[in-house]
Design goal:
11 strands, binds 1-deoxynojirimycin, about 5% strand, about 475 residues, mainly alpha
Length: about 475
Amino acid sequence: MKPHSGGIKSFGGSWMKKLLAIKFLLAAAVLNPLSAHATTERQEAYRAQATYATNALLHNLSERDIAPGAVIASPSRSNPDYFYHWVRDAALTMESLRRAYERTTDPAKRERYLNHLLAWVEFERGVQLASSDGSHLGEPKYYVSGKPFTGPWGRPQNDGPAARAITMIRLAENLLAEGKQDLVRSKLYGAEFPARSPIKMDLEYTAHHWDEAAFDLWEEVKGHHFYTRMLQRTALKLGASFAYRMGDPYAAEYYEKQVALLEESLLAHKNASKNLIEPTLNQDDGWTHKRESLDVAIVLGTIHAGLADGFFTATNEWVLSSADVLERRFREIYTLNRRGDLGTAIGRYPEDVYDGNGFSGGNPWFISTHAYAELYCNAAEQLQRAGKLDVTTRNQKFFSQFFKGRSAPRAGARLTQEDPRFQTVLQGLRKGANAFFDRALTHKATHGSMWEQFSRHDGYMRGAPDLSWSYASYLTAYMSCFSGSVD
Ligand code: NOJ
Ligand code: NOJ
């Protein structure tokens, strides 16, 4: 393998486990040298797309006519007009750049990425301070000048401040690890109250408003959302330990209390009779077209929350069952999925009608399809770390997909490292993740451009071209599945 090409991520664990894994890979390669070769070639294609995505993302950040630090959702200024800064899209885009920053060893690139990250922090600080009393931080959408968009819109959207806090806290931790205390204190966190620093403003807002109904990440439904609350929980959980670290224990304690309450409210999203996580509870406004309790927002909530603390993480039986039912549904309703052996093209939710510019019918999205790849790799990583898998009535169906034609483990079974079925699952998850990458790569433009959606019928791209979030989601999925640089 060329030194720059990404390998399958190897995860911690004892050297014994690693040795076992290596033996296993070697055995697979010896048994089938052709497939090993094909894997290398495909991995090279995945890596090449990561580089394309990084450059395309940087290109969006360097657009002329925008305030420094603004993140356009897409360069498209009409049909659709996505030439705005969405707080959510921006935070998720910056999270992918932050992770690239962590990976890259090239000093020039590191400096460039950090400059973009800090410019974004400054931009957001301006936006936050303009909401004078801090009560409007749920504003979802801004002009590229930094002025809030004032037309009719689904507001507030409270996932935005949570996503922004998560990325900024992680960035602050990166900077602290580099000894840049002063930078963190001057730009990111101060203990003063009322809050004036970017991280604390979002944490205070989140801690005081998480229980209020808000619009969902698709800007359509107002209520209490699993996605939003998962991000709020992570923001406040990371926020609490960060605040302690910054010498702000009273704030930390308050955030911790809210985390406990948030967890309680998140557990209420379990719907035992449907064996699903309800995406939304207590809807009180917005569209009422969703009936199936299915939404890729569950998967996105799991991966964007991004903690490996066992709370609705990638191996959670409710998460996997929700992901499984949703995937089957998309296989059924998108004709594109009836052909070939690529991974399932995943959309937002079955009843979706938004085609990216109008309402002719929903399509698969790159962000959703990438999210499945990321979910599968995170699940593989967490299983490998745990060294065992408990098959339950809730996750049995999901795991049975890896045992086509063979008898799948039943509910109640515990598969451990030495069990060949455990390896079958791990391999199935990795292959599955690759199939989702293959799906996405099939529908991108030849040179690498990714739009928002691709047609459920013919696979041609639809909606906003060069969507920042499409690239960001490709990058985080790639980095969750493979080691090596993305630039
Ligand atoms: C644009 C939103 O971002 C999209 O999610 C939604 O479906 C349409 N507007 C319709 O409200
Ligand atoms: C529509 C999506 O539904 C929403 O989540 C996103 O923020 C906007 N497009 C901008 O990309």
